[in-house]
Each structure stands twice: as C-alpha cells, then as structure tokens.
Design goal:
alpha/beta, Collagenase (Catalytic Domain), 2 domains, 8-stranded mixed beta sheet, two-stranded antiparallel sheet, 7 helices, 10 strands, 40% helix, globular, binds zinc ion
Length: 261
C-alpha cells in the first residue's frame, strides 16, 4: 500500500546517507594527513645555486596551529636567535627562509637510521659510502640529542642516501626533507653525484664535503654565508667548523615551529 512505501524506502536511504557521510569523513581525514606530510622543502647541496623552501597549501593546518610555541615562547626563541647570532648561522637561515625551526624530534631515543645505498650509478666506488660514514661520525660527535646510525637496508630507514651520475646544473648533492605539522623532520633523502661538473669522479675529500653538507640539511640546517662552514653552498670543508657545531646545537635547543609573532 502506498502509505507504507515511504517508511520502507526511508531505511535504505538513511543507511546510504550515513555511509556517504562516514566515507566523506574518512576521505577528508586521509587528505588532511597527506597534505600535512607532503614534501615541502628541497635543499640543494654543495656547488648548488638555490635552496628552495616552498610551503604547500596544506602547511597551515590545525596540527600546525596547535603545535606552535606560545607567543612568549616564540619571543624567547627570537631573543635566543639574536643573542647567539654571532656564533651561529641559524638566525640568518631562519630569517631568510619561512621563519620555521625544523629538526628531528626526540624519537624516544631511537636513532635516525641512515640507509647508505650504492644503487647502480656509473662510477660509484665503495669509498663514497665510507665518506658518508665519516660524515655521520662527525655529526654524531656534535652532541645533539639525536643520533645517526647507518645501515645498508633502506626498508624502514629514516634517511636514504643514494648516488646518481649527475644532477642538474652545478649541483653535486641534494637533500630533501619531509616534516610533520609540528615542524619535526620525519624522513629525508640525499642524492650525491658520482661525476663532478668537469666529468671527473669526486675525490674522497670532495665526497666527505658533500656528505657533511647534505647531512647538515638532513638534520635541519640551512646555508651558511661563511665559506669555512660545511653548510656554505660551495663549501670545501672536510670537517665541521665550530660554527657548524654551534648552529646545530642551537637548532636542537629550540622548539620546532614558527618563530614569527
Ligand atoms: Zn645546501
């Protein structure tokens, strides 16, 4: 009878609406998460010409707003940056970028696993991996609250280091970092070349320079304007300078997030 059709149809229609609403909610949550974790910066390495910081449209999210240091904390961070400006290059790189402090989180004491993967690149030599090991030991000696641990297994690694024949322009290495809504770096990749601009293989010293520089980016550092520092864009340093070490320690002393008012 006609008067009973409506109630009978109502149940499946209501069920369909509820399913659609739940599905939309799941899709929205997934999208929000994906946007928050998308790669947002590319830091190009030794002998490179540019370091891009390109915040994506998902940068301003609820997660970021909740994770920002309180206004007074941010004022204290800016004060600390100014106070230590002479001995480090953190202030200049934060001001030149998007004013966000980024570094790895505490991770419950777990090391940052750095996979050193000699994938097929023409001209790869085992000493290149040794140069990365050397750079890891140097950065581990700085006394940061995070510890790098090398592995040959890229599965589950936090950082993957690979080699390529060449990179565009004069770039000899590049690091790409990914951070979460709190500004904590969650993973990174590094590419190093097996052929320099002149077509020759990098010397062990050059590979150490490139690895020190790119691992500095992996840890969250930007470029220094002093050629004596490993994080100078055209550095030839085979050791970390006092300013490199001091800048890294200062970086990890500060909370992640924006330092803007
Ligand atoms: Zn660089």
């Amino acid at each position: 009878m006609p008067e009973y059709r409506a109630p009978r149809l109502l149940v499946p229609v209501l069920a369909a609406v509820i399913v659609l609403v739940l599905l939309a909610d799941v899709l929205w949550r997934h999208r929000t998460h994906a946007v928050t974790d998308r790669p947002q910066a590319s830091a190009s390495g030794s002998r490179d010409t540019a370091e891009q910081v390109a915040p994506g449209p998902g940068k301003v999210s609820g997660a970021i707003a909740r994770s920002q240091p309180a206004t007074t904390d941010r004022a204290a961070v800016r004060e600390r940056l100014r106070f230590d400006a002479a001995g480090s290059y953190l202030a200049q790189t934060v001001e030149a970028g998007d004013s966000v402090i980024r570094h790895w989180g505490a991770r419950g004491g777990r090391p940052i696993r750095v996979a050193v993967v000699p994938w097929a690149a023409t001209g790869y030599r085992d000493e290149f991996a040794g140069a990365v090991q050397w750079a890891v030991v140097r950065w581990n000696g700085v006394g940061l609250p995070v510890h790098l641990e090398t592995t040959r297994d890229p599965s589950g690694a936090d950082v993957v280091v690979t080699w390529v024949d060449t990179l565009s322009g004069e770039t000899a290495g590049q690091a790409r970092i990914v951070w979460n809504g709190s500004g904590e770096i969650v993973r990174a990749t590094v590419q190093l070349v097996t052929h320099m601009r002149d077509g020759k293989a990098p010397t062990s010293g050059q590979m150490v320079t490139m690895a020190l520089h790119e691992l500095g980016h992996v840890l969250g550092l930007g470029h220094s304007s002093d050629p004596a520092d490993a994080l100078h864009p055209t550095s030839t340093a085979i050791e970390l300078s006092a300013r490199d070490r001091r800048t890294a320690r200062l970086l990890y002393d500060l909370p992640t997030g924006s330092v803007k008012q």
